[in-house]
Specification:
Blueprint lengths: L2 H9 L3 H18 L12 H10 L12 H19 L1
Length: about 90
């Protein structure tokens, strides 16, 4: 099943099932990256996942005040419009 085919199915899931899907995907991607997120028998998976997420460093980028990025995108749009006209 392709990603575009999957989106309508995912949008129909309940809130709890969407969270379970996120959890499944997080574990799958972590495993692909060589990081095994093991679960302890005496803790719920959700509690362990939250603790593991708290211990990781996350970098968040925002386009807010990224004027250089806005200029690059603007230049790309102008270039694409010129190519379409040619």
């Amino acid at each position: 099943m392709s990603f575009p085919e999957l989106l309508p199915v995912v949008s129909q899931l309940s809130h709890q099932d969407k969270l379970r899907l996120i959890h499944f995907l997080l574990l799958a991607v972590a495993k692909e990256e060589g990081c095994e997120l093991q679960t302890a028998e005496n803790k719920s998976q959700e509690d362990l996942l939250l603790k593991q997420l708290e211990s990781t460093e996350a970098v968040m980028w925002s386009p807010y005040d990224a004027h250089g990025a806005a200029q690059v995108l603007s230049d790309l749009l102008v270039e694409a419009q010129q190519e379409n006209r040619a």
